[in-house]
Write a structure and sequence with these properties.
The complex is a heterotrimer.
Chain A lengths: L1 H32 L4 H6 L11 H9 L2 H32 L3 H13 L4 H15 L6 H25 L3 H9 L4 H12 L1 H17 L2 H6 L8 H4 L4 E2 L2 E2 L1 H32 L5
Antiparallel strand pairs in A: 1-2
Chain B lengths: L1 H4 L7 H18 L1 H21 L17 H7 L2 H32 L6 H9 L6 H23 L2 H4 L6 H29 L3 H9 L4 H12 L1 H16 L3 H7 L10 H10 L4 H30 L1
Helix pairs in contact in B: 4-15, 5-9, 5-12, 6-9, 7-13, 9-12, 9-13, 10-11, 12-15, 14-15
Chain C lengths: L1 H54 L6 E7 L5 H14 L3 E7 L4 H10 L6 E4 L1 H6 L4 E2 L21 E2 L2 E2 L2 E2 L3 E8 H8 L11 H13 L11 H11 L8 H12 L9 H15 L12 H9 L5 E5 L3 H4 L9 E4 L15 E4 L3 E5 L5 H16 L1 H11 L15 H11 L3 E3 L11 H13 L5 H14 L2
Parallel strand pairs in C: 1-2, 1-3, 11-13
Antiparallel strand pairs in C: 3-12, 4-12, 5-6, 7-12, 8-9, 8-10, 8-11
Classes of the chains: A mainly alpha, B mainly alpha, C alpha+beta.
Chain lengths: 277, 305, 462
């Protein structure tokens, strides 16, 4: 009986391992082709590289202006993520505790705005922030817009999580004479850690990889982000794929590391956050 | 109203005014920044965008004329737009079903106490780490060359020509890639739901001799209804708006047979330079998706009660 | 339960309020804005220009921007900008390159009031937005004489020149000299192919050497913009006749299915399709793979243009000699159109007058002048694109064999201007009709359906 279930478990393990490998094929393709020339890549995109040549990485770093782009991307992502975390968690908690009509209404509207196609407001966004306020080609503009675009999703998750934190904790703090703000930062904020990391990872991933919105505001070479710089290799009707892929791999690495570090908390966060029962 | 009941002692009128002022301050403090930024980034541009739908602006022209609802009339009488919409509905239905099923099964598998859970959880989520455009390009190569190469060498007709050059198979390819990417995302939420199922219940069920399948069906699924609602809601929204993968995988081809609605909107606005019409199409899409997703949330919730 | 219903109702009401009430209000704002915007833009730029003019006795630092839709040439343009700035110390040029999204990016630049001073755009885009553009005139730009007059036709509207053409692109059936030499047993001479049946014979000969005879890259831009575009080109007559045909399509009086020019080109299309290297799966449409097949001699001829040189360069084991054949339109040896190729000036430099000050516009003109008169600029441009330039003082020679082929057709006077006029084909012509052409190539529709589809596209444009 025990042996049978062991055998069963091994088969299950192998089965899911195969599924995982199938899942990973595209990444495998991406990585092996960074070691080939573009000509080799078009000829046989799935063969193993003949040797580990790092030329594409060197080309990518110099042509994409990699370190400048990395710095720009990091500035935007970090500032947007941190700012979004603080304000969205406050609102999420606030809406969980104070069920005023206005709060409920705003919350529902926030959800509804998740459905709005970006195309509807992208050109108006540029008209307002670029045209009227003259803020294009500023990293901070992109960070600000990114905060705004991620608000609905973030508030949604924080709200769900905060609902699960027993209200007695707040009351205990209130008896101690803490105001709501201090209660939040002293008592609730630390408890939000798992959901915070989850939201941060989701937001950071989105901002880091964003092409469309970023491309609307950042046009100069100095302000390019990694996602924009990767398109340096695009030519009319075709592209220099190999260095482009090398650039992409380099661009993914930091997020991958960030994700692996935060991964432990992600599921924990979603568990207690969005989904109660 | 909880607010007032909590403060029964402080029922003096004077205090009430103070409380009201206090409430406003609290609101400004906690929700003010969010509401301000969200309004300035989403709501105002969105309303501005709606305004454009009543003009003949081409996206560049200096002179803009108010033309009433004629852009909307054009949208509602455009059979191509509705063709794209029907295709999108088909795509949404299949993508939502497949990715939710896959996501759920993956979640079941990686919460079953299998070895290397962490690895699997990370692995299945990874497709979400890379942006959609580049994934589309990679998959393009897989469908056009890897599968065809395999098909030719094994003599399987079914895959020896590219899926992306056949209208039906190209739509299927889009669905596969979407499901591939989204199922990992949904898996995370399903895992969350499954982990919150009380262990005692599962133990009780297995003592009663219920089969694995019965446990899933009778215990797990009813208890994670909320996760299902959220997952279906998110996947409906995401697939209706699907643009990146459409652009980089099929670019609407072969011969416009996989032009999904978001892509069609983009083409109208930025290739045809019919900006007002493109905006109107997007608003119509917004309306439809809002109704569908609200109905979905409503009915799944109703089913629970 | 009831509460939830109430919530949902509230949302629906709010959304509909947003869609109706607020929309109406906002809409007024938009129109007001836009009505007043030309004035405000003009007066704005005027003021600034005055200030600048008052302040500039000698030289003041001017910042301009250059937007290019010719992508993948960053190194070239950055190098040229640096060279230009060396001699024009007071001007700095901000370089902006398009990605996959040339019109969207252009629109967003204008939306943020950063309309590029100089932009390298398609003629149709310049034409459709000429209200924003500054016309070149010979008083300010004496160097206009340096540009071949016939190359300006697609950029001239109402007698005003709004764009200066960049490189000249010739297209037709590219051929691999080595493969064709083997096929004909000797040196292949393109002048021997004067009819459609001669082309068919050539195809048979190529096939008999075990190599595929011809190739289409099944993509909308090649089949739609280039192949179908020829139907509206020189074979139909001069520009007036081309325009009147387009007009007759719009008002539905044309009968494309029975149109002789259309059928002439489609007969040749069928011929190439019959011998197509990609016949099994005609719509895979990967230029790089096709270039590889062509350059390494797996296929003899390819419907493409001389820009293909940039794809061929860098392929391992590529042959070295190539040429271009015209697309024959009949079996009549005396038909001139069996021996000419279309050349197009697909992109031109235009100068924005709506969001740039007078002095910026002047500096922009200087930059365009530099690009089309400076020897170094010309040499670099030709080297990077492998195509000829329509500038009289240009002495740099084209290294590219395909560019050389185009040049030799130009020398012999065997070319016609593909566009003729900018607004002949609408900006989405290639996208919509390219799809129909792909459908036809894939065998998913017959010629009559194709003609009907194209006809209905035109009627919608009326």
């Amino acid at each position: 009986m025990v042996e049978r279930s062991k055998k069963k478990q091994t088969t299950a393990f192998l089965l899911i391992l195969i599924v995982l490998l199938l899942f990973m094929v595209p990444f495998f393709v991406l990585v092996i082709n960074t070691f080939k020339t573009t000509a080799e890549f078009t000829k046989s995109p799935f063969s193993l590289p003949r040797s580990f040549r790092f030329d594409n990485y060197i080309t990518a770093i110099s042509k994409m202006n990699f370190f400048v782009a990395l710095k720009n991307t990091a500035i935007i992502t970090i500032s947007a993520t941190l700012f979004n975390t603080v304000i969205s968690s406050m609102t999420g908690y606030f809406f969980a505790r104070k069920k005023w009509k206005i709060n409920k209404l705003i919350f529902m509207l926030l959800l509804a705005s998740m459905v709005a196609p970006f195309q509807v407001y992208m050109i108006p966004l540029v008209k307002i922030y670029g045209g009227m306020l003259n803020l294009s080609n500023q990293l901070i503009t992109v960070a600000y817009v990114a905060v705004g675009l991620n608000i609905p999703f973030s508030v949604f998750l924080y709200n769900g999580f905060a609902e699960g934190i027993p209200e007695e904790l707040d009351e205990a703090a209130r008896i101690d004479g803490c105001g709501m703000l201090r209660t939040f930062f002293r008592i609730v904020f630390p408890l939000l850690k798992p959901i915070m990391i989850t939201v941060m990872v989701f937001v950071a991933l989105g901002v880091w990889n964003d092409y469309l919105m970023t491309s609307l505001f950042l046009t100069t070479t100095k302000t390019k982000t990694l996602a924009l710089a990767a398109f340096t290799f695009l030519t009319n009707h075709t592209a220099d794929y190999s260095p482009m892929m090398a650039g992409l791999v380099l661009g993914i690495l930091p997020v991958l590391i960030f994700y692996l570090l935060g991964q432990k908390y992600i599921i924990e966060g979603v568990i207690s956050g969005s989904v109660k029962g | 109203m909880k607010y007032f009941s909590n403060n029964k002692e402080a029922s003096v009128k004077h205090n009430r005014i103070k409380k009201n002022l206090n409430s406003i301050l609290l609101f400004l403090l906690f929700a003010g920044p969010v509401v301000f930024i969200w309004f300035s980034v989403v709501i105002i541009p969105f309303l501005y965008g709606i305004g454009i739908t009543f003009t003949d602006w081409n996206g560049l022209s200096i002179n803009v004329n108010f033309i009433g609802v004629s852009n909307y009339i054009e949208v509602f009488t455009d059979s191509v737009f509705f063709g794209a919409f029907l295709k999108t509905v088909l795509y949404v239905i299949f993508s939502v079903i497949i990715s939710n099923l896959t996501g759920f099964l993956l979640a079941l598998a990686v919460t079953s106490g299998i070895k290397g859970q962490g690895l699997f959880r990370t692995g299945f989520f990874t497709p979400n780490i890379i942006g959609g455009i580049i994934l589309g390009y990679i998959w393009n190569f897989i469908f056009s060359y890897a599968l065809t190469g395999l098909g030719k060498s094994l003599g399987i007709d079914f895959i020896s020509t590219s899926w992306l050059t056949d209208p039906h198979k190209a739509l299927a390819a889009l669905i596969i890639v979407t499901a591939w990417q989204m199922s990992g995302y949904l898996m995370v939420i399903y895992i969350a739901g499954l982990s919150s199922v009380p262990k005692e219940l599962l133990e009780a069920a297995s003592i009663d001799g219920a089969s694995r399948w019965a446990v899933v069906k009778k215990v797990k699924i009813p208890l994670i209804r909320n996760s299902i609602t959220i997952c279906v809601f998110l996947s409906i929204i995401r697939t209706f708006m699907s643009f990146d993968v459409n652009l980089s995988l099929t670019a609407g081809g072969p011969y416009k047979s996989t032009e999904l609605i978001a892509y069609k909107i983009y083409q109208t606005a930025f290739t045809k330079m019919d900006f007002g019409v493109g905006q109107a199409q997007a608003i119509v899409l917004f309306g439809i998706v809002t109704v569908i997703s609200l109905a979905q949330v409503y009915f799944t919730r109703k089913g629970r009660e | 339960m009831k509460k939830r219903m109430v919530n949902i109702v509230i949302i629906l009401v709010l959304i509909s309020a947003m869609l109706t009430g607020c929309a109406g209000k906002n809409n007024n704002e938009v129109t007001n804005n836009s009505n007043s915007s030309p004035e405000s833009v003009n007066s704005n730029s005027g003021n600034e220009a005055d200030e600048v003019a008052a302040g500039t006795d000698t030289e003041e630092a001017i910042e301009i921007s250059f937007y290019t839709t010719e992508t993948g040439k960053d190194d070239l343009f950055l190098d040229l900008i640096e060279h230009f700035e060396e001699t024009n110390k007071n001007i700095t040029v901000e370089y902006i390159a398009a990605g996959d999204d040339q019109l969207q990016k252009w629109m967003s630049l204008y939306a943020s009031n950063d309309g590029p001073t100089v932009a390298l755009m398609d003629p149709i885009n310049i034409f459709e937005n000429q209200e924003r553009m500054k016309a070149y005139n010979t008083t300010e730009c004496p160097w206009l004489d340096n540009v071949y007059e016939d190359s300006l036709s697609a950029f001239t509207y109402d007698g005003q020149v709004y764009g200066i053409p960049g490189t000249a692109a010739g297209f037709g059936l590219l051929y691999n000299q080595r493969v064709l030499d083997e096929a004909v047993g000797g040196t292949f001479d393109p002048a021997t192919i004067k009819t459609r049946s001669a082309l068919k014979e050539l195809f048979d000969k190529i096939e008999s050497t075990g190599v595929a005879a011809s190739m289409f890259t099944g993509v909308n831009w090649s089949l739609g913009a280039h192949y179908l575009g020829m139907v509206y080109g020189g074979y139909r007559g001069d520009v007036t006749e081309r325009v009147s045909f387009a007009e007759s399509e719009k008002n539905g009086t044309a009968d494309l299915a029975n149109d002789s020019v259309f059928n002439a080109y489609m007969d040749t299309f069928d011929l190439i399709a019959e011998y197509n290297y990609n016949k099994e799966d005609p719509l895979v449409g990967n230029v790089n793979i096709d270039a590889e097949a062509f350059a390494t001699g797996k296929v003899g001829t390819w419907f493409m243009g001389d820009w293909a040189w940039t794809y061929i360069a860098g392929i391992d084991g590529a042959d070295s000699e190539y040429g271009i054949l015209p697309i024959p339109v009949s079996d009549n040896e005396d038909d001139l159109f069996n021996t000419v190729i279309p050349t197009s000036y697909a992109k031109g430099y235009c100068i924005d007058a709506s969001q740039n000050t007078e002095s910026q516009q002047m500096a922009g003109q200087k930059f365009v002048e530099y690009l089309c008169t400076d020897a170094y600029a010309q040499q670099e441009m030709i080297a990077a694109c492998g195509q000829a330039l329509p500038y009289k003082n240009c002495t740099a020679t084209v290294e590219s064999k395909l560019g050389q082929a185009t040049a030799s057709y130009i020398e012999k006077g065997l070319t016609y201007d593909f566009y003729g006029t900018a607004d002949l084909l609408p900006s989405d012509f290639w996208y919509e009709n390219g799809a129909y052409m792909c459908e036809y190539l894939a065998g998913a529709c017959d010629r009559e359906t194709l003609a009907n589809n194209i006809a209905s596209y035109w009627k919608e444009r009326n």
